[in-house]
Amino acid sequence: MERTPPIPLELWEQFPPHVQAVLWVVLDRYEARIASLEAEVVELKARLNRNSQNSAKPPASDGPHVKRKPPRPSSGRRRGGQPGHPAHHRALVPVEKVNEVIVCQPTHCRRCGRTLQGSDLHPRRHQVVELPPPSPQVTEYQQQRLSCAHCGITTCGALPRGVPTTGYGPRFTSIVALCSGAYRMSKRMIAHFSREVWGIPLSHSEVCALEQVVRRAVQEPVDDVRDSIQWSDTNVDETRWREENRRVQLWTVVTPQASVYAIRRLRGAKVLHELLGQDYAGIIGSDRAKAYDCYPQRQRQLCWSHLRRDAHALLDHGGPGCKVGEHLLEHANVLFAWRRWLRDRQWRRSTWQQL
After folding, report:
1. What is the pLDDT of residues 86-113, one digit of tens each?
2. Do residues 309 and 355 share a domain?
3. Is residue 311 part of a domain?
4. pTM here?
5. For residue 236, with 0-12 CB atoms within 10 Å meaning exposed, 13-18 middle and 19 or more buried, which class applies?
6. For residue 262, which of 293, 291, 222, 292 has the smallest C-alpha distance?
7. How many CB atoms lie under 10 A from the CB of residue 347?
8. Among 197, 217, 237, residue at a domain's last position
9. Domains contained in the chain, number
10. Least confident among 51-60, 88-97, 201-210
């Protein structure tokens, strides 16, 4: 195929053949270089335009130039429950479990003032829930130390079986651990709460000691849950975490029955094998981190949030991929609409699986 010269033909024919050959080589090199630079510019522009809506970047990394999704238009209805919605009331405690019942019986008619007789078999029930004044229950164990009249050695009485050596009972210990682990209260806040609300002085080091007591107490069931996740489909993710002023990784493994958290220094396949096991045969829902490549592709389900961001990235990139991004988002919306119908029991699971 004959190529078109880069300059007018009458000028090009004035060059000798060997000069034309050299110019073609130089021209090919510059065209390849320009194509490479153009591809690099496109990639850099796409990387510059990445945000939390079209990539895996966190929302906190978005700058002020990123436009958020417009708010939903107002429906015109007032806030709160709408007319005709089913009422929700606080469930009343059964009468047999109530601490005290006070009968409020009227004595005179509110219209004519005459004396009222009888009693209401179905009175209107109004219950008030109140906490009793906090009063710590302190049990003292006096360990007597007696001397032997024969050899002179002293023997101290042993505590009954099950008495904690920390000085705090199991109920108080579990509440302290609950405040720390589930409610993320600091050691200082827990100590202040214990002193101000319960009237129990507690130091920061004692909070740490009680946490370790609970950790040892629940270690066995925690190990059982960790073993159970190796036989179920899972969703796995990891994120940065701070532990003793060090940057570590917080791993999360979620199953339909339980969730397991693990703090590790690494973010690789070694931790994943530790949590799921070498012979894991379930389906792993995750992002595209390299750690998950240690399992076959047939066991992988990419996170749908990441897939939708990839489709948005195609739309933002423009060009031929824009139409593909539109189709992907359309199919994703249809898929999740079907999933909602299955969740709301409008569809049977067989219909969902077939489609």
Report:
1. 878 888 999 999 999 999 999 999 999 9
2. yes
3. yes
4. 0.63
5. buried
6. 222
7. 15
8. 217
9. 4
10. 51-60
